[in-house]
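Running this now, will post back.
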Amino acid sequence: MWSDSTAPASHDALFEATDYRSALFERFVDSVQRLGTSTRILDLGPATPVGLNFWTSRGFSVSMHDLVTREDSGAPFDFGRADLGGVLCWNGLAALDRERAAELVAALRARLVPGGVLFAIFDGDGRTVPGAFSYRICDASRLRIEPTAGGVRPRAVSTAEIDSLLSGFKPTRVTVMRHGSREALGHVPDERVDAAE
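Update: finished.
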């Protein structure tokens, strides 16, 4: 997958597109399906027909707002009513500056239903500026990562910033993938479920 034996320290390193298993994406899908089709999916990456079909074939409505390939306008984030079961941030949080990323997460948190989930990817190790990558759904447990030539150049996002961004979600899980990206999954607490456990 990498052109040499180590992960790249800069965005100029060569990288091949590849499919990989994502346990956190699999948990995201399971969580959203448990919430049911009365909830909505928000996709914040460049939408693909395969990704849209993945959700619509399961009966979900999907809203889209591309943060990965389009420059942020600085306008307030408004994603409609509070009926989101799941949000796919992809690597969109790294396309925003630190303050805008925090604003986005707060806006999303307010629109997720109890038990709703947020899935995000942070490329690189958090110290060096990563290359530009895009992700897409292969199936309920596999994603595809591929280098992109255009779009917004991501910034390095530290693990401490990830923890801060997702502090309103419980539990939060962060997994380091073999290709060097970090995936994060946060759940909105659901007092009904938490009280029963």
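Residues 1-14 have pLDDT under 50 and may be disordered. More later if anyone needs it.
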